[in-house]
Write a structure and sequence with these properties.
Strand order of the largest sheet: 4-1-3-2-5
Number of strands: 5
Order of helices and strands: EHEEHEHHEH
Strand content: 15-25%
Mean pLDDT: 85
CATH superfamily: Transposase IS200-like
Number of helices: 5
Number of domains: 1
Radius of gyration: 18 Å
Shape: globular
CATH class: Alpha Beta
Helix content: 25-40%
Oligomer: single chain
CATH architecture: 2-Layer Sandwich
């Protein structure tokens, strides 16, 4: 060879389950981060816009948003799919639509490329995971009591889960 090394193809690690694991009546958590770790979710007006988009996507994809928690630079969700739903598609669609809308009025990207997900196992208690998620603002030092954080709640349980 003439001194030029052949490059090996880059292998990406698979970090998600099979697509089937996200379909149907499955409970899963998702964490999506704002690109550049910018603090976008700091005021009620901004959060309200994203809540509207989240509600529309949940209806369209037949997914129940058990918990949402808008931290300043990321979003936590606990979602349960319906019999014919795909929670992975729900999150991708929500991110894509909000990113498109955001880019029209801002020059920066909205979301980091991927997100973290976790499909709950049978032994995991949904309400326990929900309480863990709504406790993020306390652990993050934003409030002393989960009841004081205005950017978390549930489309199913309302604020009752936050205040329990």
């Amino acid at each position: 060879m003439n001194g030029v090394r052949k490059r090996r193809p880059v292998r990406r690690l698979k970090h998600r389950l099979s697509l089937e694991a996200y379909r149907g009546e499955v409970a899963a958590t998702f964490t999506a981060c704002i690109a550049g770790k910018r603090e976008l979710f700091t005021d009620s007006d901004t959060v309200a816009i994203f809540l509207g988009a989240l509600r529309r996507a949940s209806i369209e994809h037949q997914c129940q948003v058990l918990i949402y928690c808008f931290m300043p630079d990321h979003l936590h969700l606990l979602v349960v799919g319906g019999s014919g739903s795909d929670v992975l598609r729900f999150v991708k669609d929500f991110k894509q639509r909000t990113a498109y809308s955001y880019r029209r009025s801002n020059s920066a990207a909205l979301w980091q490329k991927s997100y973290y997900d976790h499909v709950l196992r049978l032994e995991e208690e949904v309400r326990q995971v929900a309480r863990y998620i709504v406790s993020n603002p306390v652990r993050g030092g934003l409030v002393e009591d989960v009841k004081d954080y205005p950017h978390s709640g549930s489309f199913v349980w309302g604020r009752a889960i936050v205040e329990a």
